[in-house]
Amino acid sequence: MAQMTLYNNAWAEGNITVSEQPSYSDNTLIYLHEQEPPCLGGGWVQQAYLSRQVFDYLVSYDNGTIRPWLATSWSESPDRKTITFTLRHDVKFTDGDVFNADAVIANYPAWQKGIGWHGFTYMTGFTRIDDYTVALHLSEPNPEIYNVLSNGHYGFQSPDSLAHNSSEQKCLRPVGTGPWKVARWARGEGISFVRNDDYHWAPPNAHHNGPAYIKHLEWKFVPDATTRWGALVSGGADAIYQPPSAQWQKLQRHYQTLSYVATGRPQAFSFNVQRGPFTDQRVRQAFAYALDRKQIVKTVFKGAVPYEGNGSLSKSTPLYLNVDDRYSLNVTRANQLLDEAGWTGRNADGYRVKQGTVLEARLPYIQAIIDQEGALMLQAVQDQVKRVGIKLVLIPLTQTEGFAGARSRPADKEISFGYWVWPSPNILDIVYNHALNGAFNGNNTSFFNNPRIEAQILAAQREPDPQVRQQKFDALQRWFDDQAIAVGGYNFTYNVAISNAVRGLWQDKGNGLLNFNDAYFVKEKP
Description:
The chain is of the alpha+beta class. It has three domains: 18-55 and 178-262 and 493-526, Periplasmic binding protein-like II (D-Maltodextrin-Binding Protein, domain 2, 3-Layer(aba) Sandwich), CATH 3.40.190; 57-159, Periplasmic binding protein-like II (D-Maltodextrin-Binding Protein, domain 2, 3-Layer(aba) Sandwich); 264-491, Dipeptide-binding Protein, domain 3 (Roll). It has 15 helices and 27 strands. The strands form nine sheets. The protein has a seven-stranded mixed beta sheet, covered by helices on one side. It has a four-stranded antiparallel beta sheet with strand order 4-5-7-6, covered by helices on one side. β4 (71-76) and β5 (82-87) form a beta hairpin.
């Protein structure tokens, strides 16, 4: 763990009696995060948490309402495939470059390059109308395009930095218009941010419009949850990400807490439907029936993280359908289904056998995405499916291995487990479309390939009538659940615990990203 400056948080469990009016200071806020991403920008939500500090966005998502941000207004064409944005005139990047229509157009290739699943937004590019007006073009109508544009992946970098900075500079110290500038990134330790004193274009759902109240933000990477929790309690940190679930209820009593259930897809089991035993629907359903998923989640996460039965959409995603009761624990039914599928033999270890082949399922998982508590859940799943004769082999991967594509092909695994943060029900397109830009879609971890269903997903996404659109997405979620292409585990939940000496820290409602620009101390740090 990196060396951290300690300060006295003597009244962590007491009542605050001093004035809580926001004020500017030269103080440093210390925040402890878990995962360290490879770059500050990109397509992983862990990168979006960082991007939010440095970049600004065309629009802001505010509890279901889209607010202006760098765009002051917008209008749609009759076919909903062109959106014209009018831009602010007073925004500058921290290197002095001007934010205007040319800057928007310059960023589009960076979005395409930096976000591997960018094609599922249906964006095809921007055209310049005048200095402060741009038109965004879509290949398909996308009702959630504003949610997409407001999330942490679609921020703006200065055109000069895009043109002249090295790849490493754009990775470690990108130049944005946001409330913070990167002062230094020490790999394996953390990122030092310093406030942008010229900032005065916050979105209307922010708590104030101006520079950050505090001058320095130290974003430390501390993989161990217990260490993060200990630092908060001892006064070595002002806010921490994902405290241990065992401490969550106590933290809620004695500290400030924030919690956000991520949109998109929950932590779900996706079955390889291209090859292996899970090409048989009965075997997929048997796996689901063998599990008491609700009890596992309750035992492992102790109320800090909610169970989710829907394997395709999380409960915070627009047009979510509750399917929690479809596969409740039923060992008798699981055994019956496996017998019907021909897995009637047993070996000396109690695992089912069919024509000399053991019913074995390999499940590789990236430890940076499935944290220590998630790994405990997988171990509990391994024990429960063994009762019906399924051999589950857990294969932990490092972040480097996982991001390099290790064990990601159909021959490498029978089950995948993971989440995907995305503010639209067209997450179904991202995780079930067999191709991306004409090539293998690595987001499709079930290797699903059904043109008829893919056409239905696209038809639902195009649908202009909200009620009919809901019906179409309901039908799709029921179909995927009935087929057991994927079954849910728990919702990816962003829990944060905050010192009582801090006020103003909040999460947005699009990605759950933390906003430090409004944070301030109600007690001066020594």
